[in-house]
Amino acid sequence: MIAKDWHDCANNEIDMQEIMCKAKLSDRITNAILILHTLSVVGYGTRIILANVDITDCTSEPPYIHKMELPFDVNTQRVYKTVVIAQFAYVIMCSWIAGAVNALLLTLVRYISNYRKRYIILMITELSDEIKI
């Protein structure tokens, strides 16, 4: 369906400019969604990464990005920071996947609504031509 639209618009310069404008807008929306998802994770995770946590204190549990039980004992600062940075990378990747799915759905909805609008305009012009006859 999209390939047919590109082929149909390739013959008309105005339609080609409109399609290129919509493609650029979709690209900008996708970039904005991914940047916002990344910024939200960075804002959430930076507080925990930069926190000065005393690992040797057994009375309190150190803060993690995700509450989880580890199969090993976190008894040094290096192990703790490694676990938190791994969690941070995991959350960033998950947010990118969620952002990509959101952008894909948004692009598909925009395309379908535009296709539907063109179909309705085409039907109205055909009906008005039949009424004139």
Helix and strand arrangement:
Blueprint: H1 2-10, H2 13-49, H3 77-132
Transmembrane segments: 88-109
Organism: Lasius niger
Protein name: Odorant receptor 92a
Explained architecture:
The protein is 77% helix and 0% strand. It starts with a helix and ends with a helix. The chain has one domain. 3% of the residues are buried. The chain has 133 residues and is mainly α.
Compact description:
The protein is built from three helices and no strands.
Poorly predicted ranges (pLDDT <50, ≥5 residues)? none
Main beta-sheet strand count, sense and barrel state: none
- Overall residue-averaged pLDDT value: 79
Structural class, by secondary structure, is: mainly alpha
Mass-distribution shape: rod-shaped
Spell out the helices and strands N to C.
Answer: HHH
Q: How many DSSP-defined strands? A: 0
Radius of gyration: 26 Å
Number of domains: 1
* Content of β-strand: under 5%
Q: Report how far the terminal alpha carbons are from each other.
A: 32 Å
Specify the number of helices. Answer: 3
Transmembrane segments: 88-109
Keywords: Membrane, Receptor, Transmembrane, Transmembrane helix
Protein name: Odorant receptor 92a
List keywords for this structure.
133 residues; mainly alpha; 77% helix; 0% strand; rod-shaped
